[in-house]
Amino acid sequence: MNAKAESPTPLTGVRLLLAGAVLALTNFMVVLDTTIANVSVPHISGSLAISGSQGTWIITSYAVAEAVCVPLTGWLSGRFGAVRVFTVGMIGFGIFSVLCGLSTSLSMLIACRIGQGLCGGPLMPLSQTLLMRIFRPDQRAQAMGAWSMTTVVAPILGPILGGTISDSWSWHWIFFINIPVAALCAFGAMRLLRHAETPTQPLRVDKIGLMLMLLWIGALQIMLDLGREHDWFADPMIVGLAVIAGVGFLVFLAWEATEDQPIVDLRVFRHRGYTVAVTSLFFAFGTFFASAVIIPQWLQTSLGYTATYAGYATAFNGVAAVVMSPIVAKLSTKVDPRGLVCFGIVWLGMTTLLRTQWNSGADFWTLAFPQLLQGFGMPFFFVPLMTLALGSVDPKETAAAAGLMSFLRTMAGAIGTSVVTTMWDDSSRVARSEVAGRLNEGHTIDALSAQGMPLDQVRAIVAQLVDKEAMALATTHIFLLSALAFFGAAMIIWLAPRPRRAADTSAAH
């Protein structure tokens, strides 16, 4: 099929509404899948007979695959056309969702989640690109506002849907529910968006850059996921992975800095404002995402919460975010974005400090209230940071800068999850030793034995109590470190100059 005109005739009427709904629903589904599995990890771990830390690979594998594919979106759409790539990506996402639901082993599930991430990575930026092509210029701001709401609402509904489905049916259905949505969106794209196809040309892909990126990211993620089980650098395999990741990263940087058409345009880092903004984003988002992973696991494995109620408790952070997002968007044009970002990240740190007061006897609202407060500060962090970063680069670099920003944000979430879950497990072991050393075991055993319990049951109860308290101490320790990370990320932002111009954030994803 020949390439269409650069600026297609915008759609109108019902056809426009249906096409916009298809694009918004696609974005909703892809973002939903980043959080829907968070509360289902204990269910999946139990079903596949794996540990909780291994269960987090289901989250990180999707995130890493999505991050790797995002920088390829521009090349794919330029080579094959945005609508074709969008449609094929949607079909692939649906197929891998089926395979995820049918998985019977951890290796199969991780492989299929990687497939999901590779197919889903281009869908979010392409949904924005196509949205801008089907709406008139005077309608685009309103359309992007509606599209942005799906990005905010999906992470809220993800834990609730994941928990409810896992408890009511089985974890397999958190993937199966994607099938009708993927089929509907793929059909809608073929019927409604055909005229919005982008021009194509035989573009050259930076194959060496792509292979280097896959090499160092893959080695790094495997090292982070397997390190704890292999005693980290006491194992030659982990040392080898670390060397591959480090050397691969340095070679990748050198290659991309000198390549004419790089897979990742590193030249945008010459802008101090952009570099500072994405550095702050990396640390703050990695910390935020990691806490979103460990909280539901702790609630289910230690406090006896069902996946449904763990989803309710963690979803509160999105309620205030929905309300504050449009307010912060207006403030971003009137107030120094550095101040807004600093306030937002400090707010995240303060609400994280509230979690250091949690204990094994905390009730539902004690756990949910910091989540609700946290949502108030999230838009102050995300919205102005995007304005600051993209306002620091040249207009022609906006798309490349936005793609790299999305890549780093997703990688931060995956790396942060791997690091924090390892620290959490190690901290719980240390805490267990300390609790066991201070426990008046003899008095406790005598008191329980006096109630007629056999010795084996008494010992099991004591061990369960020690484990529960140790996990609570480890969790609060992680939150203390997380708060310090947030405060550090907030201070970094002041190294950036005030943006020179208003940013076109439509390229961000």
From TrEMBL:
Pfam families, per the entry: MFS_1 (PF07690)
Domain annotation Major facilitator superfamily (MFS) profile: ranges: 19-500
UniProt keyword list: Cell membrane, Membrane, Transmembrane, Transmembrane helix, Transport
Compartments where found: Cell membrane
Mode of membrane association: Multi-pass membrane protein
InterPro entries linked: EmrB-like, MFS, MFS_dom, MFS_trans_sf
Main location: membrane
Segments crossing the lipid bilayer: 12-37, 85-108, 144-165, 171-193, 205-224, 236-255, 276-295, 307-328, 340-358, 364-390, 402-424, 478-496
Domain of life: Bacteria
Family per record: Belongs to the major facilitator superfamily. EmrB family.
Protein name from the UniProt record: DHA2 family efflux MFS transporter permease subunit
